[in-house]
Amino acid sequence: MDEPIRTWNEALARFSRERPQQFKIWSGQVRLLRADDAVWILGVPSKFFIEWFSDNYLPLLAADLEKLSGKTPAFKFELLPEDNTPVPALTPPAGAALVPETRRRHPRLNESYSFDRFVVGDSNRLAHSAAISIASDPDCRYNPLYIHGGTGLGKTHLLHAIGHHFFESRGTERSIVYVTSEDFLNQYVSATRPQDKQSGMKEFRERYRRNCDILLVDDIQFISGNKDATQEEFFHTFNDLYETGKRLVITSDRFPKEIHGLEDRLVSRFQGGLIVQIKEPDLPTRKDILRHKAKESAIYVPDEIVDLIAENVESNVRELEGALHHIDALANLTKTTVDLDTAREAIRTIRSKKERILTAEEIIRVVSLFFNVRPQDLKSHRRHKLVTEPRQVAMYLCRKHLKMSFPDIGSHFGGKDHSTVISSVRKVETRLAKEAKFAGTIGDIETRLMSL
Ligand code: ADP
Ligand code: MG
């Protein structure tokens, strides 16, 4: 283990020298637990951290580790125990310009997801003001606050920012509870295990009801489908908190009514508060975000490259950040500032990587699985409803996500006429506009496609 520790420390030291600001953000939270030639196991505080760290910093750190060790290890993560205080790096790397932390900080919240790091534009202005209001205004009328919007648009960021603000102004650690609906579900399931049902449930209810002043639930859509007990428990938790004047903030990738399998009484509770949507950022906001992110990470990017990224990466903020870091990594590798051509090439690579993931065959596979039919049924001429509905849905998804022409779609589905394809796609569009439940189903399938 000595060798990996030495390499790990060297990589940390290098990272801290080259990117002190970025290093400061994650360094106290990751620990090397074990390593062999092929796999390095890192201890981290949360599942959420894994995603964030893997998206933002691991690629850079991995590149350094690879250079230093001459090997290409894979990384695995293990969650550190909950009460684990942040760990310092194994040895403080020489030259690390660590800025002393002056603010009080909630250990379960991501430090960089604060209000002052959230860039406000037309796409998120309302969500941002509602978030500030619920975090700081004692008479806030927006309760519960329900924030919805596509992936990577800042919902989790706002949720943590609310938590930080609440914590700084009046909260104790236990009074601010941040949880993903998946974790809520898992914790509930383990609390109800027969062997520790009594103490388990007592602890669970203390955490979510008695001690809690503000409950922040991320990605509520994952609670659907788990009807029965978990939704029931969540409903009572919700009521309990609501009736005692506690605050609730919920995020989701869609409108409450569109969450397939979510009980009506929960839908109506969510609709009883304020519902705000975060949309995709417009061009000026994208430029603003990029400038902020570059400054925060101490990255120098010329204006024309900021413009180029903002004009070409439109879908979400996570991807904007990804493109910025990718280009910065290129600059570091070549030890020069990246010119426009190299940046263009980099963006093309990022885009093609993304587009390569989804194909008509993938859509057919995922849709068939979802509806429990065989892929060849979608390509057949059978007209049974069990088959026609998934076929229409799959055609619609090919049109929407792959921008395929109607004849092209037809040939992927066993040589159907383009007018058949057009009428299938239109049928789905009409139903989407009218049937919330159907829209929820399509949303579920899309989530699966996006997470391939
Ligand atoms: P979501 O939860 O909606 O999928 P996140 O909150 O995880 O999205 O945001 C993805 C990334 O984009 C995070 O790194 C977050 O800090 C950043 N981000 C999103 N919106 C903004 C914004 N308005 N200003 C600054 N950073 C943002
Ligand atoms: Mg999120």
Describe what you observe in this structure:
The protein has 452 residues and is of the alpha/beta class. The chain has four domains: 2-79, DnaA, N-terminal domain (GMP Synthetase, Chain A, domain 3, 2-Layer Sandwich); 115-278, P-loop containing nucleotide triphosphate hydrolases (Rossmann fold, 3-Layer(aba) Sandwich), CATH 3.40.50; 283-354, Orthogonal Bundle (Helicase, Ruva Protein, domain 3); 360-450, Chromosomal Replication Initiator Protein Dnaa, Chain: A, CATH 1.10.1750.10. It is built from 20 helices and eight strands. The strands form two sheets. The protein has a five-stranded parallel β-sheet, with helices on both faces. Strands 1-2-3 form a three-stranded mixed β-sheet. Helix 1 packs across helix 4 (58-69), helix 5 (125-136) runs parallel beside helix 6 (155-169) and helix 19 (418-434) crosses helix 20. The longest helix has 18 residues, at 317-334. The radius of gyration is 24 Å and the shape is globular. It starts with a helix and ends with a helix.
